[in-house]
Design brief:
This protein has 299 residues and is α/β, with parallel strands linked by helices. The protein is 27% helix and 27% strand. The longest helix is centred in the last third of the chain and has 23 residues. It comes from Cytobacillus stercorigallinarum.
C-alpha cells in the first residue's frame, strides 16, 4: 500500500498535521515513539482552551480527535530508517517493517541538554524551567535564579522582570556577560554571580538554595535555566536536510525542506522557539502544504 503521507513524531506538531491530513481524506500513518520533550512537565501553558493541561492529557485528547478519521493510522513504534528513491520515501521501523509514502513530515522534536549541575535534574520541570512564557506566571513574585553558561542569556533575564523583581544570574564559573550587560543588569538591581556552582539544593522538586564551590549560599525558590537542544532523531541528518545555526531544520513557511516531498514541523524546525501552540500551528501548516502539493501533482 502506498501512503499519501507518513508523519514521524506524535507531539502537537505531528498530531495537528495528522488532523489536517485526515480531514482531507488522505491515507496517512503517524509513528510515535512516545518520548516527549515535555515528559517532566506537569502542566502546559499558553494554548487557549488548554491552559494548564497535563501533557499526557493533551495527548490523550489529541488521539481521541484523530480516531474520528478512518484514514489515519497511529503506530507506537520508532522509525529507524528514511530514504528517498524515485520520488518515493522508504520508511523502516524498529520492528523491521518497511512502508512507502509519497510524502513525509518530520515532527521528531528535540532533546534538551541541561548543564551538568548537581541537583538540577531533580528540580527541572518542578521549580526550575526553561521558558518564561510557559512558566513565568507560576513563579511570579518568587526569588528567582537564572542559571546559564550561554551567551545571550540577558534577553531571558529581561523577560523575567515581568514576573519578579528579585532575580540573580549565575553563570557557573563562565564569563558569558559583557561589561555593558553587567552594568545594565546592575542598574535594575539584578546581581550577576560568576562563581562556580557546587549544587542546587531543594526538597520534593522545590528549589531552596544555590550553593557555590566557594561556600556561598543564596536562597532562591524558583529559577530558569539556559540550555542547548539537539535533534531528538538522526533522520534529518541521514536523509540530508539542511539545518540552521541552531540546529533546526530549514524550511519554508509551510514546512517544506530542501528535499522535495519532505516537510518538518514543530520544535525540530523552530528551535529554539519552542511552544506548544507554535508546534501545533506548524503541524497544521505542514499538513496543508502536503495536501496542496499532492493536489498539484495529481490534478
Amino acid at each position: 500500500m502506498m501512503l499519501d503521507c507518513v508523519i514521524i513524531g506524535g507531539g502537537p506538531a505531528g498530531m495537528n498535521a495528522a488532523l489536517v491530513l485526515g480531514r482531507a481524506r488522505k491515507n496517512i500513518m503517524l509513528f510515535d515513539e512516545d518520548k516527549p520533550r515535555n515528559s517532566v512537565t506537569h502542566e502546559s501553558h499558553g494554548f487557549i482552551t488548554r491552559d494548564g493541561i497535563a501533557p499526557a492529557e493533551f495527548k490523550r485528547l489529541a488521539k481521541e480527535d484523530l480516531q474520528k478519521y478512518p484514514s489515519i493510522s497511529l503506530k507506537n513504534e520508532k522509525v529507524t530508517g528514511l530514504k528517498k528513491e524515485n520520488n518515493i520515501f522508504l520508511i523502516k521501523t524498529s520492528s523491521g517493517n518497511f512502508m512507502q509514502s509519497r510524502k513525509v513530515i518530520l515532527a521528531t522534536g528535540v532533546k534538551d541538554q541541561l548543564p551538568p549541575i548537581k541537583g538540577l535534574k531533580e528540580l527541572y520541570g518542578k521549580s526550575v524551567f526553561h521558558c518564561p512564557f510557559c512558566d513565568g506566571w507560576e513563579l511570579q513574585e518568587r526569588k528567582l535564579v537564572v542559571v546559564s553558561e550561554m551567551e545571550g542569556i540577558t534577553h531571558m533575564v529581561k523577560l523575567l522582570t515581568n514576573w519578579s523583581d528579585d532575580i540573580i544570574v549565575c553563570s557557573n564559573g563562565k564569563q558569558i556577560l559583557t561589561g555593558e550587560e553587567k552594568e545594565l543588569l546592575a542598574s535594575k538591581g539584578i546581581r550577576v554571580l560568576e562563581d562556580e556552582i557546587a549544587y542546587l539544593h531543594g526538597e520534593d522538586g522545590q528549589l531552596q538554595e544555590v550553593v557555590f564551590t566557594n561556600g556561598e549560599r543564596i536562597e532562591r525558590n524558583g529559577g530558569f535555566v539556559g540550555m542547548k537542544s539537539k535533534q531528538a532523531s538522526p533522520l534529518a541528518d541521514i536523509i540530508g536536510c539542511k539545518v540552521n545555526e541552531n540546529g533546526g531544520i530549514i524550511t519554508d513557511e509551510f514546512g517544506r525542506t530542501n528535499i522535495e516531498g519532505l516537510y518538518a514541523s514543530g520544535d525540530t524546525s523552530t528551535m529554539p522557539m519552542a511552544q506548544l501552540i507554535f508546534a501545533a500551528s506548524d503541524g497544521s501548516k505542514a499538513g496543508i502544504a502536503v495536501v496542496s502539493d499532492l493536489l498539484a501533482e495529481d490534478f
